[in-house]
Design goal:
The protein is mainly beta. It is 0% helix and 45% strand. The relative contact order is 0.17.
Length: 120
């Protein structure tokens, strides 16, 4: 479970095979994010230029897009794949975080294969 930086009462939770869920009331109720089939890891990062909505990063599966690393700039309504399927990060990612200072910079830590980062 993670709070959205700078937004009072908004928290998100990943439920692995039950997807990604958003709460606007401090965690009392949650609504599933449509299209997210699996949500293994997620993180919030710096908004893109001209926006106040934090970038949302997901390691999981999006319906009709498959499994991978994705970014949403609109609270999970639409997704862009930012991972490189020809260079998989392995089968054991453990943690994901995104920079609050640099838009697009995301980090994934694995269980023994190092730390991966990207700036797409």
């Amino acid at each position: 479970m993670k709070p959205v930086p700078g937004v009072e009462g908004e928290v998100w939770i990943n439920l692995n095979s039950d997807g990604l869920h958003r709460s606007m009331d401090g965690g009392k109720t949650f609504v599933p994010i449509t299209g997210v089939k699996r949500a293994y890891l997620f993180a919030f990062g710096k908004p893109q230029s001209g926006s106040t909505i934090p970038a949302l990063y997901l390691y999981g599966e999006i319906r009709n897009m498959g499994q991978g690393i994705f970014r949403s700039l609109d609270h999970g309504k639409t997704w862009t794949e930012i991972g490189d399927r020809s260079r998989p990060i392995g089968k054991n990612p453990q943690v994901m975080e995104a920079s609050k200072q640099v838009f697009g910079l995301v980090f994934i830590g694995t269980g023994g294969r190092g730390i991966y980062y990207g700036t797409r």
